[in-house]
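Notes from the 1:1 (GR / supervisor)

We went over the backlog. Supervisor wanted to see one worked example end to end before approving the batch request, so GR pasted a single chain during the call. The sequence is below; no edits were made to it. Supervisor asked that the structure be written out right there so they could see what the output format looks like.
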Amino acid sequence: MTDEGASAKGYLAIVLHAHLPYVRHPEYEDSLEENWLYEAITDTYIPLLMVLEDLVRDGVDFRLTLSLTPTLSSMLLDPLLQYRYERRLRNLLDLAGKEIARTQAEPALNRLARIYHERLERISDAYLHHYGKDLVRAFGNLQALGNVEIIASAATHGYLPMLSVNPAAVRAQVRVGVDHHRRLFGGRPGGFWLPECAYFPGVDSLLEEQGIRYTILEAHGITRARPRPAAGVYAPVYCPSGMAAFGRDPESSKQVWSSVEGYPGDYDYREFYRDIGYDLNLDYIGPHVHRDGIRIDTGFKYYRVTGKGDQKALYVPERAKEKAEMHAEDFVANREAQVSHLRALMDRKPVIVAPFDAELLGHWWFEGPVWLDYVIRKVASGRRKVRLVTLSEYLEEYPTNEVATPCMSSWGDKGFSEVWLNGSNDWIYPHLHWAAGEVVARGRLDATGLAKRALDQAARELLLAQASDWAFMINSGTMVEYASKRTRGHLSRLHRLLGDVEDNKIDEAWLSTIESQDNIFPDLDIRSFA
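Structure output shown during the call:
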């Protein structure tokens, strides 16, 4: 740390939550849902890695916290999905060549097509040669250098407050997630990302059992804690279990997340919702969308936000980059103003915790990785009043904190559980609770051989059914049929597996089929639920 950095008035902890639901469908040659992963790799994960590696190469001393959920890391490491992503990259490179030819008579469009072609070539080269298809190891290398702290998360991103009817189910989500993290990165994780930032009193004890030192809550989880913490969200509290809880800063979140006031809505940034996959004739674009003619995003987006309505101006990368730097400066200056004000009121340097979905940067907000690069470089220059920190480092500097019981909370709409429990999706939970009870009971049995395989697979199906993503999709009205099918499908397989074990009539061929389809956590033992 430089002398200038030592004199900073406070800290900024940027936390990126990288997560996607488990969408692996070997039973289909062309799965629409797998495109979520391919788009995120192209638009977010590889651009983010490139930004962070450039910072390391330039000698920038930075800190970043990253959660890499078990479902996402499992997909990134899956050979089938790696092969299919490589195939998708080749397809997009073919499209880039066609676009250069198609736009030849339109210089502005042609320039953008060439920029996309060059970008895809860089992405492809990085994925295949620099990273050797292993993005998890690439993130792990950044942790080994000390610049990134990777924290754990629940096995399948289950919404833990609603699963808490059966504490053993929550314990299994936590335990399996922590064990998965240890296998990938070695050592016990210091932090744990609660899915949807969803806290309920008592979950801290389950985290503390696994050696977790801290987690991150929505702001009111801290500000409504009992007793109410004097520092609000700008210092952690210790839960009754002894685990620390940090609160999300509302001001920094609003500047990035808000659809009205947030940076991504600036008129010079790239428009997400105009893609040639929907704009061009199907005879032309057909080979680059779904084989059944279903239109999907290709990533070729030629327009900027501009304003409301269909009349969009062409995207100008230079203007967008200038805006990214302006917004980075604004973001850092606002954090400096915050810490300068707070430092006079506190007995320590405040910490501003700024968590974001990683996929916001690059996928939804195309310029997000460039903005992050500017933010980190500006803060790490040593000339600012705020300094980057990981939450583990902050706890090391300030090991003494108030003790309080946080309020039940989430970062969903209205701050509690309404997104994941309402009239559209409440049908899920009686089935999940029943299934958890059955799996917990079977976890106490001393099964062997084929019966043990079937019971382990039943536990796998339960974890997949518990993913918070399905209730979220049903609530939002997007992919409702798919989300409902996933929930019912996993529960149906679980029900059959338990019945087959009970009747001693296990169909080994069918069991092998679903083991190969729902193959997450190959070492999972149903006794994790006991």
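Supervisor's comment: The longest strand covers residues 10-18.
Batch request approved.
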